[in-house]
Structures are given as C-alpha cells and as structure tokens.
Amino acid sequence: EEEIDVEVSSVIVATGWRPYDATNLDTLGFGTFPNVITNVMMERYAATGGPTGGRIVRPSDGEAPSRVAFVQCAGSRDVNHLNYCSGVCCLASLKQATYVKEQLPDAEVTMYYIDRRAPGRNEDTLTPVSALDGVELVNGKVGKIEQEGGALKLRVEDIHSGKMLDATADLVVLATGMVSRLSEASSPFGLKQDEDGFGLD
Asked: Half-sphere exposure of 56 toward its Cβ, with a 13 Å CA cutoff?
C-alpha cells in the first residue's frame, strides 16, 4: 500500500443513491400483489444476467404480460414520501417501454404520468417511444392498485378532467424515485446537504 498526495483543482464526490422503498406505498400494492414491481426490478428482468435471463415476465406465473402499466412518480412529488422529482424516472420508463415492445411487440404499454419530463435533447427519446404502436402516455395520477382475479385494477385520476378512471394491467412497474445515500454516512469533506439529503456546492 502507498499513500500519495495529488494536487487537483476540484473533487467530484459520487455519493450514490438507493431506490425509494416501494413498500411504503401501501395503496399501490407492492409486496402484496406479485405482479407489481419497481423500475429497478424491471431493469433486472430485462438484463440477460438477471433472474429471468432477460425475459420480461409476470412474477406470479412466469408468463409474458400482455398489458404493462408504468406508474410514474410512485412516491415522488408527494409530501408524504419524496417531495421532489428525481429527474430520470420518466426517461427510465420510456427506455423500459422499448424493452417491452422489442420483446413483446403485441403487448399494450401505458405510462401514467403527472408531467412528462424529458428535457433538452432527451425529447428525442420521448417522441419516438410515444409514437410506437401499442404505447400510450396518459396524463393521470394512479392513486390505488387492486387485484381482481388475475388482473390488476388501477384507479387513475385524470389530470385534465379531475375524474377518476379505471384501467387494467397484468404487470405494473412503479417508477420509484432516488434517495440520496449521503445522509446515511458521514459526509466526506464536510459536504453540506439540502433538506432532502443531497449534496450542495
């Protein structure tokens, strides 16, 4: 082992993050209904080195889903959970929607969102995905998920009309936000934190 001194003009501290605990979202059924998963789980399902060898399936029976719902802001922008937007969840869900359509071209994919956030050049991701056959982006907030038989029933508030809508799916992906790990350990270099635990300049 050797210690060396290096003179630098700046230091980047990669603090890391963890996904928000979806079991806190008791109205959305995670941990109760097996076919309600998180965006991190979906990423693992789609990975060839993941638990299903890259196959997107329903955890309950290992069968391919025919109707997939992405629920944005699952716990985010919510004073009872995370009051901020993590800034990447919409893009992650759009990417994962392409996973579904590439693997299961006949599947119906619906993304329920409060706001579609794909700033700047990321708009180039939003436009082609939303134009895919069988992909629908709905401006609505999912407030509750229940299971009826083999299907999941979503209770959705239509943002524009304020009316409640019912939808169904056989696989639901919760887009949970990012939680800073900086608040879980001693802060390096005395780095200051904001009220949500993220580092400040």
From this structure: 27
CA distances from 118 to 18, 34, 41, 78 (A): 21, 30, 22, 20
Q: What's the CA gap between 35 and 50, in Å, rounded?
A: 17
Q: What pTM was computed for the model?
A: 0.89
d(CA 156, CA 34): 20
Tell me which DSSP letter residue 73 carries.
E
pLDDT tens for residues 181-195? 887 766 777 788 888
Give tens-digit pLDDT for 115-125.
Answer: 877 766 666 67
64/104 Cα distance (integer angstroms): 8
DSSP string, 104-132: -TT-EEEEEESS----GGGHHHHHHHHTS
Angle between the 39-46 and 89-103 helix axes, to the nearest 10 degrees?
40
